[in-house]
Amino acid sequence: MIYDTIVIGAGIAGCSVAHFLKQKNQKVLLVDKEGIASGGSGAAGAFLSPKIGVSSPLKDLTDDAFNFTIDFYEKNFPKHYHKTGVIRVPKDELDASKTSKYSKFHNAKYEELTSSQISKYGFDVKYNSTLFFDGGTCDAKEMCAELVKDIDFLCFDVKDITRKDDVWMVGEKKAKNIVLSTGFENNLFDMRYMGIKGTWGNRGDFSSQLKLDVSLHEKLSISVNMGGVIKLGATHELEVADIKPCDDSKAYELLEKASNMIDTSDFKLIKTYCGMRSGSRDFSPVVGKVIDAHRMFEYPSILDGRKYPTIYHENLYILNGLGARGFVLAPYLANELAKLIVDEKPIDKRADSDRLFWNWVRKIRYG
Ligand SMILES: Cc1cc2nc3c(=O)[nH]c(=O)nc-3n(C[C@H](O)[C@H](O)[C@H](O)COP(=O)(O)OP(=O)(O)OC[C@H]3O[C@@H](n4cnc5c(N)ncnc54)[C@H](O)[C@@H]3O)c2cc1C
């Protein structure tokens, strides 16, 4: 049997692509070395809120993805998306001074709240902040599993992929197309031009009776109380090279930070999660075809700034670099990628991975 597509990596990126390809009647096989949502996606607090700031390609992309994804989760997986509202608190005085400047760029339902209004929700914060009504949080693992519940899945570590007679081989399995959604690990191809690297993060789930009906994001995220459980999460440790075991002391660090904003006196740690999220060289997502960098460098004067037609690896695609917003961006971008693979519709330019190749060439050229 030849699959239409094998998706490698079953985080929120791979699960979303597999889902949208299946919606387009493709025969899909999903592969992961450790199981569904075993990487960064399983560790995520999975909060969803729009990006705050002035208009930019990344902000506008994130906001479009936010509106698409909320609608998608609510219609298809209402059990695992909790529309709690998210209060976005400025991280410092400078940030706070820009709150009203940024408001004209919001592209989602919101209300500005004073710190005394926020205290009625149970939070003690210094600055006036913004409540996004449609924001909320997903059950990370359950959402990934639901997305692919009717899709063939195999658990093995893909060591390499090969192509023969127009067919890709992944172990014993064959497919017309491959999608790489392997998160921060990128050993299957030369993808240096994308500059994918990992940022480490931690989450602690605590039992508590504290009444919290709205989620909040400052330097860390605090969820509503769902059946006696409150999630605290953050991803900030840059340039961590390797996966390390989860460490309860990190969850207690989150608890200490949270105690500046909420009453944590009855909090008891239930479980610590940790994982890596991946970001690209320019912090925007990478979606689309994979460029054959080696063949591109055979062009005689590519380093002199001449543009040549792009050469891609045949039928090889990627969805990666989702940063701190995988649960916001993945469904929107997976839908884009499915349209490219099945209908040959061009990818949303703001996420197209080609941009990174030409930036990389320019970087090499100028040292
Ligand atoms: C602590 C923490 C909190 C976070 N909080 C939020 C949040 O609140 N909101 C939000 O939107 N995002 C959040 N994120 C970010 C979000 O988790 C990431 O953006 C998301 O996980 C990226 O998904 P992914 O599918 O690209 O990568 P991953 O989830 O890392 O998936 C990659 C998968 O590929 C598999 N794999 C890799 N190589 C191979 C191979 N050779 N063979 C087979 N399988 C392979 C891995 O096992 C893994 O399962 C958080 C992340 C962390 C760590």
From TrEMBL:
Protein name per the record: FAD dependent oxidoreductase
Domain of life: Bacteria
Keyword Oxidoreductase tagged: yes
GO cellular component: cytoplasm
PANTHER family: GLYCINE OXIDASE, SARCOSINE DEHYDROGENASE-RELATED
One term of GO molecular function: oxidoreductase activity
Keyword Oxidoreductase: yes
Pfam families assigned: DAO
FAD dependent oxidoreductase domain residues: 4-340
Annotated SUPFAM superfamilies: FAD/NAD(P)-binding domain
Keywords: Oxidoreductase
Organism: Sulfurovum sp. enrichment culture clone C5
